[in-house]
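Proteins fold reproducibly. Take a sample protein:
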Amino acid sequence: MAKYEKAQEPFCVEIEEDKLMQVAKLAEVGMSVAAVAHEVRQPLSALKISLQMMRENAWDNEDLKKSLDDALQQSGRIEKLIERTRNFLMPSTGKKKIDLGEVVEGVMTVMEWHGNTVSKRSKMDVKINHGCSLITADQAMIEQLVSNLVINSREAVASSDRGRVLVVVDKAAEGRGVDLIVADNGEGIDSEIAQKMFEPFFTTKSASNGTGLGLYIVKRVAEDHGAAVQYLDRPQLQGLNIDNMTKGFKVTFPASTSRTTTPPSYKRISSNPGAKKRALVVDDENSVLQILGKVLEQMEFKCVLCATGEDALVELEAGPFELLVTDKNLPGISGIEVAQVARNLYPVMPILVITGFASEESALEALSLGVADYVLKPLDLNDFRNSVDKIMAKEVRKKEMPIAMAPPQPTRVPAERDDVAVNVLLIEGNDGIRDLISDALLGLGCEVAAYTNLEEALASIGSYPFEVVIARPEDLKSQGFRFTHSPGVLGAIALMERGGLDKTIEAIHLGARGVLAAPYDEASVAFDFRHSVTQMRKEKKQHS
């Protein structure tokens, strides 16, 4: 019996590997369809808003109104179909800290280097620096990214008896982050093809051997993780101390934040000279960029339109703006990075982030920056206008004066006070989490009044106003929302579990100016709290 089991072992391993490869291919098909669905969202936004603007100007032409209503109804059906397709085909496992090196090793185990695909004289090397390979990512999506890059290189050397593929995970060559490099010694790529290789459906293979979506998916997954993907030729690889390779790809987690000093490649100043408010609009989809500019001009903004994050940074440094509207997924510097620079330059400027590729992770990033709204594509004309009106209204920041907000004495007092030491009202029902956060804030010198629920906090309120309120989004509703706009209060910080995208957007709408996200530990709580309070103080200083 032992001999039989041993004799069957190679056969069983081969079947398992075939199954795993089939699963990988099915995953690629799912991601391809979902990625195409995302691309449809871009022109759909411009189409939907254009139809709505035409509907408003149809006056008494009832036939035209009916036709436009029918068109809007059909665009709504497309929108729902896109959302259902993406949710079905790309269920996220959630972003968390993962070891990129371990992911690469796992992918290599599945994609065994043997069989008819590659010559037996070909070689594959894997070099991993596990000391710097931690990233925050959706593991399933990163596995797909690595698989696509390795398959691309493996196929490039398939016909060679001396083919070689090298996979490297190491500290980013420039700045902070982690580099993933996949290189090979196959035939090089000319510059014309290199410029098109990330476009959807572009391929140099026959129709039966390639879909033209492998590298496009790499690009989309990288963008969703705030990463930059770059094609490398031989000289660039040699510059990274990688010899004997002709070409490769480098993905850097997170994306480089270096700024460009070159003139903007695309920029247009609106033709509304009487406008008093300046708005910076950033979107790499020209149709969306133009239509948003038109809508904001109608709302009496003077708009500067930019197609890249690099151009937006140039404009931000050149002069002040009263509003920033930016797409999240931009080539190169991302919309979140643009928002971060804008927040540092103009602490009280409202920021509206729009995206067709939403994720809980990016919404949490936006919340930590204190953005005013996080809007999903395809955009709706009235929703967009209402959002802009709301975040521009002074009443949003000056709500009605609420009741005073502190007990006569804080429940816990620190021995010494830090430079971000403030008086904190903490509302949290979980004893362990409440104590952990209290301990972290005491370490910063804060005075903390901690309560298990909103009712208990309200019942204990005295006459001394607290500066920061920390609570769950559900506790920042109703009366709790008034905490965020009381005199002397810097703002509210939302306590977030992994509650999903909708809950995170809700916290943004409730006016939270920062976030403490699970899993909680004292170091991360202290770091995030310090960041939020520093930003709140900048806003208060600029207001005063």
Notes: The mean pLDDT is 76. The longest strand covers residues 164-171. The longest helix spans residues 2-56.
